[in-house]
Design brief:
There is one protein chain. This protein is α/β, with parallel strands linked by helices. It has a single domain, classed as TIM Barrel. About 40% of the residues lie in helices and about 15% in strands. The protein is built from nine helices and eight strands. Strands 7-6-5-4-3-2-1-8 form an eight-stranded parallel sheet. Helix 1 runs parallel beside helix 8, helix 4 packs across helix 5 and helix 7 runs parallel beside helix 8. The longest helix is centred in the C-terminal third of the chain and has 19 residues. It is globular and about 45 Å long. Bound molecules: pyridoxal-5'-phosphate.
C-alpha cells in the first residue's frame, strides 16, 4: 500500500518537475506521518524515505525515541512550553514565527547536536487564525534567527487556506517564492535557499512555483481518521 502510494507520488513529482523544467533532485519529499503508527514510518523508511514530519508533539516523541534513524521535522505550531522537547528531539522545524520562539529553540538546542534547521512560517493572507509572521515583520525575524548560534536558517514555509482552489494556491506559492527571492539578495549565499510548500493535493502547483520541500501525508499514508 505505502509502496504503491510512494510510486504514485514520485511519478507526480517527476511529472511536475518535467513540466516546470526542474531537476527532480531539487525537490525533497517530507513524509508527513502524523497520526500514523511507527510501523508505517518504518515501512516508508525501508522504501527509501529519510525525512518524516510530525505536528502533534506528544504523538511524535515516542516515535522519534523508538526510531531515531530518519531526519525528523516538526511541522506543527510551536508553543513556548514545547520548545525544549522540540529542540532536543527534532532536526528541523517548519513553523517558526516569532523571535521569542526562535530564542527559546536556540537556548534549548543541545550543544552536542548540530544547529536546528529552521523554516520561518509566513502568513500571506492576513487571517488572524493562521500561524505565521507577517511579510512586514519577516526581515527582523530573519536577522534574529541569523544571530542564533544553534539555529540554521533554511528558508520559508507557507500553507494556503484550505478553502483556496488550485489557482489561488498557485498564486500564494508564487508570492511566497517572490518574497524569498527578494529577501535572499541581502543574505549569505548558502542560507535561506529552501521553500517548504505544497501538500498531497497541491504539490504540482507548489513545484511549478519553486518548492524545494513538499510535505506529503495522505497521498503516502492514506487518509487520517481524526
Ligand atoms: C498534515 C500536514 C501536511 C500534510 O497534509 P496532506 O494533505 O495529508 O498531504 C503538510 N503540512 C502540514 C503543516 C501539515 O500539518
Amino acid at each position: 500500500m505505502i509502496q504503491e502510494n510512494l510510486t504514485a507520488v514520485i511519478a507526480r513529482i517527476e511529472n511536475a518537475c518535467r513540466d516546470a523544467s526542474r531537476n527532480p533532485k531539487s525537490v525533497s519529499l517530507l513524509a508527513v506521518s502524523k497520526t500514523k503508527p511507527i510501523e508505517a514510518v518504518q515501512s516508508a523508511y525501508h522504501l527509501g524515505l529519510r525525512h518524516f514530519g510530525e505536528n502533534y508533539l506528544q504523538d511524535a516523541l515516542p516515535k522519534v525515541a523508538n526510531f531515531p534513524a530518519p531526519t525528523w521535522h516538526f511541522i506543527g505550531q510551536i508553543q513556548s512550553n514545547k520548545t525544549r522537547d522540540i529542540a532536543a528531539h527534532f532536526d528541523v522545524v517548519h513553523g517558526v514565527a516569532s523571535e521569542k520562539i526562535a530564542s527559546r529553540l536556540n537556548a534549548h538546542r543541545p550543544q552536542t547536536k548540530p544547529p536546528l534547521g529552521v523554516f520561518l512560517q509566513v502568513n500571506l493572507v492576513n487571517e488572524a487564525s493562521k500561524g505565521g509572521v507577517s511579510p512586514e515583520t519577516l526581515p527582523r525575524l530573519i536577522h534574529h534567527v541569523l544571530s542564533c548560534e544553534h539555529l540554521t536558517l533554511l528558508g520559508l514555509m507557507g500553507m494556503p487556506p484550505a478553502s483556496y482552489d488550485l489557482t489561488e494556491r498557485s498564486h500564494f506559492f508564487q508570492n511566497l517564492r517572490a518574497l524569498q527571492q527578494t529577501l535572499k539578495t541581502d543574505l549569505p549565499q548558502d542560507c535561506f535557499t529552501e521553500l517548504s510548500m505544497g501538500m498531497s493535493d497541491d504539490l504540482e502547483v507548489a513545484i511549478a512555483a519553486g518548492a524545494t520541500w513538499i510535505r506529503v501525508g495522505s497521498a503516502l499514508f492514506g487518509d487520517r481518521s481524526h
